[in-house]
Amino acid sequence: MVALSVVYPEDDPLLGEELQALRRFLPESIALVVGGRAAPAYADVLESVQAVAVGDLEELAAALDHLRGARTVQA
Prior knowledge:
Elements: E1 2-5, H1 15-25, E2 32-35, H2 43-48, E3 52-53, H3 57-74
């Protein structure tokens, strides 16, 4: 898993391209988890790169539990 916090700015024109590049370089088996204050502004690109968007620490914990369970099933 790669986790990113997008805090500022909410309108970076290059962030979408960078997230798409990161997704291309990561193996498909590696989850991309993105949170942070500015993350909702990038919802479309997060969906396009199949990132798991989290809004707070509880959602992060739930995402981690889900990813751990998914990995156990695949193993």
